[in-house]
Design a protein that fits this description.
Blueprint lengths: L1 E3 L5 E6 L2 H7 L6 E6 L5 H9 L16 E10 L2 E9 L10 H18 L3 E8 L6 H11 L4 E7 L7 H12 L5 E3 L8 H14 L1
Parallel strand pairs: 3-5, 3-6, 6-7, 7-8
Antiparallel strand pairs: 1-4, 2-4, 4-5
Bound molecules: guanosine-5'-triphosphate (GTP) and magnesium ion.
């Protein structure tokens, strides 16, 4: 038996500064971090995966302004382990002031500098519109850290007709690395991801 014990998922704290990131580091053994464009569904993913209403979701891009820290428990046979999940602010949100944007980018950069060895980075992209310019810049930025990285295409429920779904599948096949296609909002295709994530966390 292997499963996430959803009733035990918790929001722990909010981190807004580099000092707080450094202070929290010793508390983290293994973690996952959700990254991606603003509004792509990172917080929705946390809720779908770990517990309803754990993270704040909004239609307005730029909802998650700080690093939100969660813990979740995983059971494999009779062993239970606790892991950390970080919900990160999104990139590429145009409608905020330059000062605010710079503060988020700095916090994200601090996060990667400090946590790149601790985390599996789960990079969400929009299935309808993957590899947008700022996704590409993010990937380029992020590669230097050589962190573990999974690519997830979210909002597949928006691929409304057969031809859109076929086109997406063909696109997915052209990718060199393994990727997942899910709908966090409709909780579609989460089983394989959950099983792979548990295997990943337990083997590390
Ligand atoms: N149709 C559809 N909508 C989704 C899906 N996942 C998230 N959304 C919607 O997308 C919007 C943004 O979701 P969030 O989870 O707040 O996005 P985020 O990536 O955390 O955004 P920031 O915090 O701004 O970086 C919300 O209106 C969600 O309901 C999905 O799989 N399908
Ligand atoms: Mg969010």
């Amino acid at each position: 038996m292997k499963q996430i014990l959803r009733a035990n998922s918790r929001h722990i704290t909010t981190i807004a500064t580099e000092i707080q990131l450094i202070e929290y580091l010793p508390k983290v053994d293994q973690a996952i971090a959700l990254c991606g464009r603003s509004n792509v569904g990172k917080s929705t993913f946390i809720n779908a995966f770990f517990k309803n209403n754990l993270a704040r979701v909004s239609n307005t891009p730029g909802k998650t302004k700080e690093v939100q820290v969660f813990t979740f428990e995983v059971q494999v046979e009779d062993e239970i382990k606790t892991f950390t999940a970080f919900d990160l602010p999104g990139y590429g949100h145009a409608k905020v002031s330059k000062t605010e944007r710079a503060r988020w980018d700095l916090l994200l950069d601090n996060f990667f500098q400090i946590y790149h060895e601790k985390c599996l980075f789960i990079h969400l992209m929009d299935a309808l519109n993957p590899f947008q310019k700022n996704d590409e810049s993010f990937i380029k930025y992020f590669r230097r850290f050589h962190s573990d990285y999974w690519m997830i295409f979210n909002k597949v429920d928006k691929l409304k007709n057969q031809s859109a779904r076929a086109k997406f599948k063909n696109f997915q096949k052209t990718l060199k690395n393994k990727s997942y296609a899910i709908s966090a909002d409709k909780k579609q295709n989460l089983e394989l991801l959950e099983s792979d994530l548990i295997d990943y966390l337990f083997k590390n």
